[in-house]
Design brief:
Number of helices: 4
Radius of gyration: 13 Å
Order of helices and strands: EHEEEEHEHEH
Largest sheet: 7 strands, mixed
Oligomer: single chain
Strand content: 15-25%
Low-confidence stretches: none
Helix content: 25-40%
Length: 119
């Protein structure tokens, strides 16, 4: 199972980040929720991007390119195996930062990857 950090976590059930958290935990993946909203998703509290986790396999992004720069250092310091750019989060600048730090990335939908067994 791949420990996944969700950036842009939201307690709003209509948001894709919420749906991803539910699907990830439902399939046995441990999650960390990071975002600006208070609350919890899938039984896991939403926290600010302060704690650096060293055991993250995947970071899945649910924040737009305009907001992402404030997370660049956090992502690089976390040193995940990969970053997933969900639709609408694609960012060439962040992709260059990831490449410079030997972090893989993909432009894909976490929900689709999970549903077709390619996560």
């Amino acid at each position: 199972m791949k420990k996944t950090l969700i950036i842009g976590a939201s307690p709003d059930p209509s948001r894709y980040a919420y749906k991803a958290a539910q699907m990830l935990t439902g399939r046995g993946h441990e999650i960390v929720n990071v975002g600006i909203k208070k609350g919890e998703v899938a039984g896991v509290a939403i926290e600010k991007p302060e704690t650096i986790y060293k055991d993250i396999d995947t970071i899945t992004l649910y924040i737009g390119p305009v907001t992402q720069p404030e997370y660049f250092d956090y992502i690089v310091t976390t040193k995940p195996q990969r970053v997933i750019f969900n639709p609408g989060t694609e960012n060439v600048e962040l992709q260059r930062v990831l490449e410079a730090n030997d972090i893989e990335y993909t432009e894909a939908c976490t929900l689709v990857l999970l549903s077709i067994g390619q996560y």
